[in-house]
């Protein structure tokens, strides 16, 4: 039982548009790309920081925007990109919820592995 208590529980949040036929969702990867845009000022720099091709990062963002029916990024050509107001709001909400889910998931896991078996 002691080994179980050293483990951690992971909870992955995705935000989807139930009206969309697309399977694209705002999840950990898109959130990381958006954080990179916020930190580095461009999707290209964000993609490089993640060791991802710019074309793949752009496709992921575009697919997510299409699926959610919101624009996440404002693109300014050679001058980089910034998150839209909706993009910032979605990212902030995602990060807050993910943090709370992670804490609750860990709390529940710890409670479950410390309970005596019935």
Which strand-content bin applies to the residues? 5-15%
Quickly count the helices.
Answer: 5
Shape: elongated
Helix-strand sequence: HHHHEEH
What proportion of the residues is helical, as a percent range?
Answer: 55-70%
Write the layout of secondary structure elements.
Layout: H1 2-5, H2 28-40, H3 43-49, H4 54-68, E1 73-75, E2 81-83, H5 85-114
Antiparallel strand pairs: 1-2
Helix pairs in contact: 2-3, 3-4
How would you characterize this protein structure?
By secondary structure, this protein is mostly helical. Helices cover 58% and strands 5% of the residues. It has one domain (25-109): Arc Repressor Mutant, subunit A (Orthogonal Bundle), CATH 1.10.10. A two-stranded antiparallel sheet has the order 1-2. A hairpin with a 5-residue loop joins strand 1 and strand 2. The radius of gyration is 18 Å and the shape is elongated. The mean pLDDT is 93.
Brief account:
The chain is mainly alpha-helical. The chain has five helices and two strands. Helix 3 (43-49) packs across helix 4.
Structural features:
118 residues; mainly alpha; elongated
